[in-house]
Write a structure and sequence with these properties.
mainly alpha; two-stranded antiparallel ribbon; 11 helices
């Protein structure tokens, strides 16, 4: 006979909660929404900055990277949550790395097969998802201590918050730097005839850091509780 605690633990493994908590309860919705604003991985936690600088010259690579990270984080959080009671504490980091590396290799091959042009643009940065501190951080801080559904929402939510900033930065860099979006010219020719010129500085890596800094300033000006107190 299983005890009540064992039954609850077994049922929670497969997305069923004996406590009858709705799948999209207020707490669960917060796992998706908080990383988009109050707990954004890039602008609040200041994680994953390297890729924000490197792949945001154009919108298309930023969108593909966002989808890739979302797939890896969602799947890895689910796998680690399923295995959390079977992983010895002393090798948990190694197990997490193996899980993430396997998923990244799968994403890498899918992109190589179906989106080769973008794959060439992203090149080494897809492989570097393995060392992305956001991915490993959520596995360590959340998936190891929570059920499958919550871990999945946490992974998708943090990936979405990361990708939101990536896409936002890429939008302004490509628009102001080359007058294009997703590779298509969007600024009418008559604007250039009036004397407008593309800002080539926006295509340089330092401007990605400046753009992220502006977003951080705007976010803290709007949400004063994010300002650190001495």
């Amino acid at each position: 006979m299983l005890t009540k605690k064992q039954k609850n633990k077994k049922s929670s493994l497969f997305f069923i909660n004996k406590e009858r908590e709705p799948l999209f309860s207020k707490k669960n919705r917060a796992l998706l929404s908080d990383p988009l604003d109050d707990n954004n991985p890039i602008t609040v936690q200041v994680l994953g900055i390297c890729s924000a600088l490197a792949i945001t010259v154009q919108l298309k690579p930023a969108v593909v990277m966002t989808i890739s990270v979302m797939a890896v984080m969602g799947a890895s959080n689910v796998i680690v949550s399923l295995l959390r009671d079977l992983i010895p504490n002393r090798i948990r980091i190694i197990v997490q790395l193996v899980v993430v590396a396997s998923l990244v290799a799968l994403v890498d091959q899918i992109l190589k097969a179906f989106a080769y042009d973008v794959y060439k643009q992203l090149s080494i940065f897809i492989g570097l998802i393995v060392t992305n501190c956001i991915v490993m951080g959520r596995l360590e801080a959340f998936a190891l201590g929570n059920g499958v559904w919550k871990s999945f929402l946490d992974g998708v939510g943090n990936a979405a918050g990361y990708g939101f900033i990536l896409i936002l930065v890429a939008f302004f860099r490509e628009l102001l730097g080359s007058g294009k979006l997703y590779g298509y010219k969007v600024i009418p020719e008559f604007i250039y005839d009036l004397g407008y010129q593309d800002n080539g500085l926006m295509l340089l890596s330092p401007m990605a850091l400046v753009t992220v800094g502006i977003f951080i300033w705007i976010q803290r000006a709007r949400n004063r509780k994010l300002i650190e107190k001495n």
